[in-house]
Design goal:
Layout lengths: L1 H16 L7 E8 L8 E9 L2 E6 L9 E4 L4 E4 L1 E6 L10 H4 L2 H17 L2 E6 L5 H8 L7 E4 L4 E2 L21 H4 L4 E2 L3 H14 L4 E4 L18 H13 L4 E7 H10 L3 E7 L2 H10 L2 E3 L15 H11 L2 H11 L13 H4 L2 H6 L8 H16 L24 E4 L13 H4 E6 L2 E5 L3
Helix pairs in contact: 6-7, 7-8, 8-9
InterPro entries: Amidohydro-rel (IPR006680), Metal-dep_hydrolase_composite (IPR011059), Metal_Hydrolase (IPR032466), Metallo-dep_Hydrolase (IPR051781), OTAase-like (IPR057744)
Protein name: Amidohydrolase family protein
Pfam family, one: Amidohydro_1
Amino acid sequence: MKLITAVFCVAASLAAAQETSDPGTVITGARIFDGLSPDLIEGQDVLIQDGMIAAIGAALAPPEGSAVIDANGRVMIPGLSDVHWHVTMAEVPQTTLLTGDAYEIAARAVPTAERTLMRGFTTVRDLGGNSFALKKLIDSGILVGPRMLVAGPPLTQTGGHYDYRLPHDVPADSTMDYWGRTAFFVIGDGDAEVRKRAREIFRMGASQIKIAAGGGVASIFDPLDVRQYSLEEMKAIVDVAESYNSYVAAHVIADEAVRMAVEAGIKSIEHGMLLERETLELMKEKGVWLSTQPLLDDEDRMVFPTAESTKKWLVATAGTEKVYKMAKEIGVKIAFGTDALMDPEMAAKQGKYLSKLEKLGFTPYEALKMATSDNAELMEMAGPRHPYQKGPLGEISVGAYADLILVDGNPLEDLSLVANPEDNFDLIMKNGVIYKNDME
């Protein structure tokens, strides 16, 4: 019965493929990690047409005029994703927030987007900054970069993690500073104002909302332990997100602040390094994602200009290993992201951070699944605000987006291969378009 079904599915896929005018591309001889199963799929060819995977089967007959690529035993994996990325901040020096402007940030973000894609990250959830125009230009083919689920300006309280006003800018008659007017960071206080700001952010085209619900490391004026926003304010923001059939992600590290965010209905906890078991169990019960990052005080540590931020970094990263292992044991849904911030060298190590998951208790399969189909599941919580709905992301299946990588080696056996995409990723495809081809 399974064989008959498989033959029927291949036949149906080929029939559908013949209806398009795009002859497409056929990749033969690959060993396929589909993003879902721990076992490589052998002896199958993949037909790509109109940006989608049109057929998968043994010895597919290439349509007339199609390009044929012999993978020659390389491992095919889905395009990777990073669900805590800042295309407008990953490589921008922190001084730009003091002395630069929105045009400088936009100009710096263009090559950042292209470098992100060339590391094999074909999709990102962009969690902070005004990257709407960049997304539009990438999707239209004018610029090169990953698919982007944009959160737009993160919403913060006065004195919160994203209140980047200068020391003498308060007291102030208005919280709408330059970065607020350019939709980079937005400050809002009180039920009515946070509702208005959240609605404005969705009006800009956000896929999901990002708020600060607790203290942060890189920011100057908010201690790590503080709760930010009241329960009522957070519920108001969640209500707006739900009215748009989407959800709220929250920057938050300390346990008490995370618990309040979960009680308010927030569905994605960003960071959460200082979580305790009881709160993680609550997150599992309520289906809340832990979108933490493999940030450690190691050779890849973030470097900060102030002693206070360095101190907070040490406190936060001391909990990284514990929270990963405890969340995995409890069964909390865990996503992969990097939060590369204001440092081109850190951004360049995007794949290396994925490889660090092995040191934190995950098998190569678990890490790769996290950065492909698991991340895709998290991003689907954006519902109708998700901008890419023609097919699944993060998997290799008929009808999925043709976001593919051919790896010289088997990352299910050697996860460190993803740390060096320049040498080990021989082909990178997004939406059926080949952006890198070192197959010869």
